[in-house]
Design goal:
The chain is α+β, with helices and mostly antiparallel strands and about 290 residues long. The chain has helices at about 15-30, 80-85, 90-95, 105, 115-125, 180-185, 215-230, 240-255, 260-275, 280-290; strands at about 35, 100, 110-115, 130-135, 140-145, 150-155, 155-160, 165, 175-180. It is elongated.
Length: about 290
């Protein structure tokens, strides 16, 4: 399947016939589509496929022998085959469909689902600008590229790409940006304590020397200030927040000489103000360096 680089500009469905037309339009441009029932949920498994009896296809961890013609496998029901979408077996489902969804990973994109104004404000300060789609409660930020999906990566933020579905709400506005390490870091978990290699230095490491891509010192200053704010705003999962923040800063600033010990020390200070020990800060920094190959 040829993966499009952007979500196509297509009409938004508004009724049973329109839902099917929208799904067929999406499929025609390589975007796997599927119907949703009321409540933005997939249709349930048929009796033949109940309790994974069909051999594994619902979670796609194993191919399985399933040949069920019905859209009853959650995100895995999404298809680009117009004959399947328009088949007699799917006709009763479209009659009860309340919306259309698509499989972002199959379309070659990642959706950062922002559920509320606070999450949107956080994204505007911390994530690269990209195509946005207005949702019932917030926004979908769409990036070109695929990654692991995860729910609740931070308050009000889900990531949908592989093995996930997102409701189709129209093409949105703006230019679709490429997926970056800052977005990928949202679903990266810090290695367990048993795998950590403690850093023996008394201060954080400096960045590697190289060509600096930053136009002005204010770019780095703003990034460090936002990182400090992100750590300070953590109300839970402080360990994870500190690690992900370190990872995001290093992914942007860690490959040139501008990230000095003074800047990194500010991040350590912010983390320790939230109750993190100096040892954990050093471990998290080292693990982030290792994860990025620095």
């Amino acid at each position: 399947m040829t993966q499009p680089t952007v979500i196509p500009r297509l009409p938004v469905g508004g009724g049973t016939t329109e839902h099917l037309r929208t799904a067929l339009s999406l499929a025609a441009q390589g975007v796997p589509a599927m119907p949703l029932r009321a409540g933005k949920m997939p249709f349930g498994n048929c009796p033949t496929c109940a309790r994974n009896a069909c051999g594994g296809r619902p979670n796609m961890k194993a191919p399985g022998p399933c040949a069920c013609p019905r859209p009853c496998h959650g995100w895995a029901a999404a298809t680009t085959d117009p004959q399947v979408l328009n088949s007699p077996a799917w006709a009763p489902v479209w009659q009860h469909a309340a919306a259309v969804a698509y499989h972002p990973g199959g379309a070659g994109v990642t959706v950062v689902d922002l559920d509320d104004p606070a999450a949107i404000a956080w994204a505007r300060e911390n994530l690269p600008a990209t195509r946005t789609v207005t949702t019932t409660r917030g926004e979908h930020w769409i990036y070109r590229g695929t990654m692991q999906s995860a729910n609740a990566v931070r308050p009000g933020v889900d990531v949908k790409s592989h093995m996930a579905y997102a409701r189709w709400l129209g093409p949105g506005t703006g230019v679709t940006a490429a997926l970056t390490d800052v977005v990928r870091a949202l679903v990266v978990k810090e290695p367990s304590a048993a795998r950590r290699t403690p850093q023996t230095l008394s201060v954080p490491l400096s960045g590697q020397r190289g060509a600096c891509p930053h136009r002005t010192p204010s770019y780095l200053e703003r990034g460090i200030a936002m990182a400090e704010q992100s750590i300070a705003a953590a109300s839970s999962a402080v360990h994870t927040t500190v690690y992900r923040t370190f990872l995001a800063v290093l992914s942007t600033h860690g490959r040139c000489g501008c990230l000095t010990d003074a800047y990194a020390a500010r991040l350590f200070t912010a983390a320790q103000a939230k109750g993190e020990s100096a040892r954990h800060c050093t471990d998290a920094w080292t693990n982030a360096l290792t994860a990025l190959g620095l």
